[in-house]
Please model this.
Amino acid sequence: MRPLIAGNWKMHGTLAEATALARGVAAGPAAGADLLVCPPFPHLAAVSEALRGSHVALGAQDCHAAAKGAHTGDVSAPMLKDVGARFVILGHSERRADHGESDAVVKAKAEAALAEGLVPVVCVGESEAQRLAGEAEAVVAGQLAGSLPAGFAAAGGVVAYEPVWAIGTGRTPTEADIAAMHARIRAELERSFGEAGAALRILYGGSVKPGNAQAILALPHVDGALVGGASLKAEDFLGIAGAV
Ligand code: PEP
Model:
């Protein structure tokens, strides 16, 4: 399947920096992968404009479970659709930790995204303590069971495996550990969704850089990458996309 290289810009950059970064990414070659950038909310409209007519898709980093209402500070899936987003990252470990998002909350948000025709990119991953305790696969299987709604596979939903301890740390699991976890995720997706689960993209995220991308992206059932820090420089992001 065609890989997806997604950039999670998190809470970084001015409006000018965001639009310059978007233009830089869009100016790169349309490599052998689909490209996606996910800017902070205030920059979505300008980045949407900067990407217009390009091969780079727009995504957001979260949405509320409700379509509208009295939810101060939140943003709804219809608003994201309206501004030109096609994807939305949900259940990132930073949101699970900073905002106490449970699997049930992530699932409700994913349902809201699907109702708008947005593709959810649902993040799962174990903590270091859970990995050391030998619980990594069970934790991730539990997150998948709790976070993915029924319509996920039919909508081409994306799963991102992001071990919490590998995010922004420069550390990555061994290639064998990444391959084992992605195989387990594939098995869980097929168990939940049948044949459709075999066609869903499973991204790896956690300290992906141009230097390690080729080895990671070559692993079985690794269908792309969710990139944080290295997505903030067009050259690095494009370097990762070029490693597909
Ligand atoms: C992320 O937070 O989604 C991520 C993968 O970050 P980094 O690439 O910086 O580890």
